[in-house]
Every structure is written in C-alpha cells, then in structure tokens.
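We emphasize that the prediction below concerns an isolated chain of 106 residues; any contacts that depend on oligomerization or on bound cofactors are therefore not represented. The input was used exactly as deposited, without trimming of termini.
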Amino acid sequence: MSELYLNSSNFAAEVKGPGLPVMVDFYADWCGPCKMMSPVIEQLAKEYEGKIKVFKLNVDNAQEIAGQFEVSSIPTVVFFKDGKVIDRFVGALPKANIINYIDKYI
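Result of the prediction step, given as a token string:
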C-alpha cells in the first residue's frame, strides 16, 4: 500500500475497523507546513507498509470529518487503533519525531 487519500466516502471503511494502526495526515493544498510534510508522509507510508496504514485527508474536502476529530490547525496527524483516536500531534515535525510516534503503536 502506498499513500492513499481519504474522503467522507472511504474514511469509515479505512479507519474505523479493527486491524493495523492508522495514521491520518489532515492537510490542505494551500498549507505551507503541510506541503513540507507531504514527502515525509509519503516516505513513511512506504517504509511502514504492512505495519501501519498511512492516509492523507484534505480538510477542505472533508470538513465534517476534520470537525469530528477537532482538527482546528493543520497539519494535524491523528493516530487510530481499532477506530479510536490514540494519539495526535499538530504542526510539521521532523521525520525522526514522527517515527517515534509510529514506533509506539506498531
């Protein structure tokens, strides 16, 4: 699996069920820090394939989902396990910091 984009029609199917932990990057195309994080998110999706599912969700196209998870600043990365939020961070972080988050849940 490589990076996949979520929207209101596929969010529940990909995130809410049991299985691998899920990392969702809430972003927007116009957001500078989001653009900086995008290549890192893509790398992590490849590097952690089979260990964690990595997705991106454009908040402009799925405002109801962003609101449901109280995403008020972007980028926000939310971690899910069995459909429940288990952690999150806000802002652009270096790859090593994001790996520290991922390694807690795989």
